[in-house]
Amino acid sequence: MKRGQLRVYLGAAPGVGKTYKMLGEGQRRLARGTDVVIGFVETHGREHTAEMLEGLELVPRRIVDYRGASFTEMDLDAVLRRKPEVALVDELAHTNVPGSRNEKRWQDIEELLAAGIDVISAVNIQHLESINDVVEKITGVPQQETVPDRVVRSADQIELVDMTPEALRRRMAHGNVYAADKIDAALGNYFRVGNLSALRELALLWLADRVDAGLQQYRQQHDIDSTWEARERVVVALTGGAEGETLIRRAARIMARSSGGDLLAVHVARSDGLTGADPKRLAEQRSLVESLGGTYHQVVGDDVPAALLTFAKAENATQLVLGGSRRSRWSAITGPGIGSSTIRDSGDIDVHIVTHSQMGRGRLPRLRGSLSRRRKIQGFVLSIVLQPILALALDLGGDRLNLTSDVLAFLLAVVVVALVGGLWPALVTAIGGSLVINYFFTPPTRTFTIAEVNNALALAIFVLVAALVSSVVDRAARRTRQAARSAAESETLSTLAGSVLRGETALPALLERVREAFGMTGACLMERVDEDELTEVWRPLASAGTMTCGRPEEGDAEVPARDDLVLVLQGRQLAADERRLVGAMALYAAALVDGERLEEAAAEAKPLAEADKLRTALLRAVGHDLRSPLASAKASVTSLRSDDVEWSESERAELLETADESLDRLSRLVDNLLDLSRLQAGVLPVFTRPMALDEVIPGVLTELGDDGERVVVDIPHTLPLIEADPALIERVIANLVANALRYSPPERGPLVTGSSLGDTVEIRVIDRGPGIPREDRDRVFAPFQRLGDTDNTVGVGLGLALARGLAEAMQGSVQPEDTPGGGLTMVVSVPAAVTADLPVPGTRERTGTTSDD
């Protein structure tokens, strides 16, 4: 079945008109004859939005009962049965009421898409998971409902519903967003101009990144190499020299002039160039680039200008930053430098040459590679020029020189040419020199006849020595090239390993580096999953760039990692010396696959081990702590039913009270066990709301019974509201107070107090008991842990474990501290409730309701 398409309306803040636009699109498609239904839409009481519902079919909502209250949710099954062409589903980040098939609404939408139904939805930028914490820092309001970025990024269409902060505030002032009694509070808190401007910028930048990814994919699919200046991308070339920091900061300033630009640093490791870069200095420069928000890349290339420009064009760079040449003035006679060659071939890319203190101070430390074509040409030219000059000079020497001197002079020429041009120019010089010596200086002269045997031997030895010397020079150059190439490959492998160790997703990061390093358009690691007599079945494990092949043989190059794993590359054929390095990377990728699978197996085994450990502790607890109240209750009931003893009314009442207390204790223990099980399974329902702490304390004291009279409560009236689940926060405090009562001296009961710190409210339960040693403070929160206490009357050791688990489920925490003067203080931290229509924390007023888009 063809998968449906997803269209998302993205807004910067509530009230910009996402739902209105979504309904408008539904009306437009309905007018064209498309089958459109409303799966779920929330108008928030806005008149103009409600008017857009007219004429659209509405699938009735499903009613869900939870904790004595009724809630409405989208009826997913009804929409699937109705099977429209398009479904309108509002509030993409919404969390479904417990008991629904899926936890999140975006998961419901995934089912609709899988069924071939197109979906139109809406979401605010603050609900995206990757920037949820950034929004909280800007607005001071934590967002409980989030949606993974990948869900929104995978949408077929994303449309930004944009509005200036001033226009949105005017819309609110006119009563088009919130009710009149909420407008002033909203404008003075969440909807301040600064908050709205920051949220708007986040929405624009996030969407720009998504558009840019689509543009890059389009360019790769259509083989577009020219630069499209849709967005500033600044590439800075690093050599590992001391000037690197200057170049990076200069490039960062260039990028900062245009909002939303990218900074990319690249180092070219080559076999005949700058292979002697300082690894420590490159690592420092990489850290600097990443601290400035850029990314570091490394490519291998024998031609540095070509490698730089290939990388820059592949990344659609608009500007390239290079350092001024470090070569001396005299070295310019050997040819243009990297900067000149890069400028000449840069095309649409602007090249900046940045001056620095190291200019003109000689080349970087480097290993000479194999002899280039230019060196060989220079060797042939030197051979042609040097031989006639040397022959003329020796001829002018006349009778003062003999044949031995002539041979040695030409042998020196052969060595010089070999040092400049290598083997073949030296052999040409040796043969030509032997002919010149034979013709001009060997009797009889002016002929190629050799009259004496010793002269023939001398010429033969001359040619042999010249060939041996030139061969040694050429072999040394070849060995140097191999060593330099190996150094470049090692540097590239270490960079790849560093990328993974720095926290990048292992396989995708490795494949992306392979693609960049060898100038490929795509890289994919494929695994053989099945094999029959006729064909093999392969599946991709991870990929980078643009991959269009479904089998290894459809790529331009395939390098096996092992029998069932192949690294497939697209873009060009690999050279023989490149396959060795790619082979090492393929083996590294195979090791990563094995490592990830071992981690997954370990992760699957860990819960089993923890569960086994918990099961053992539970059985131990059942053998002692659960058995005691059960035995006590059974003994009391058995005694009451016995006909052998006549019980008085007071004795019967005492036995009934004992049975009742034992059963209550047993009920509490079972409830704790069930809640702990739900916490560990991650299915404990949590419904937080703004509430005052003094609403909780009376219920805590009531649950403690007579012991509650020993508790001292000192809650400041100015304490802000907290964001918590009323039932759960009551159990947290009750468990902590009960634990404090157990260890407090009779004459001095525990103290419960509270204070605010930033956007957090701290509740302290203070006792004057013996305290807990620091090394045991983590252990007390483990289930069934009582630090060696064997008294069965104190419970199974679930109170503190449950208190911490419940607090963390409400985005809070429980931490132990020393009480000054002796004892233990348990600190419960929970978020303060700060919303657009609630008073600022620290005021006495306790009324208000929340609202959302």
From TrEMBL:
Its main location: membrane. It is an enzyme of class 2 (transferase). It is a multi-pass membrane protein. It is found in: Cell membrane; Membrane. The chain crosses the membrane at residues 377-396, 408-441, 453-473. SMART domains: HATPase_c, HisKA. Its EC number is 2.7.13.3. Keywords: ATP-binding, Kinase, Membrane, Nucleotide-binding, Phosphoprotein, Transferase, Transmembrane, Transmembrane helix, Two-component regulatory system. PROSITE patterns: HIS_KIN. The keyword Nucleotide-binding applies. Residues 621-834 form the Histidine kinase domain. Coiled coil: none annotated. Gene3D superfamilies: 1.10.287.130, Backbone structure of the membrane domain of e. Coli histidine kinase receptor kdpd, Histidine kinase-like ATPase, C-terminal domain, HUPs, P-loop containing nucleotide triphosphate hydrolases. Pfam families: DUF4118, HATPase_c, HisKA, KdpD, Usp. GO terms for molecular function: kinase activity. It catalyses: ATP + protein L-histidine = ADP + protein N-phospho-L-histidine. This is histidine kinase. It comes from Kribbella yunnanensis. The lineage of its organism: Bacteria, Bacillati, Actinomycetota, Actinomycetes, Propionibacteriales.
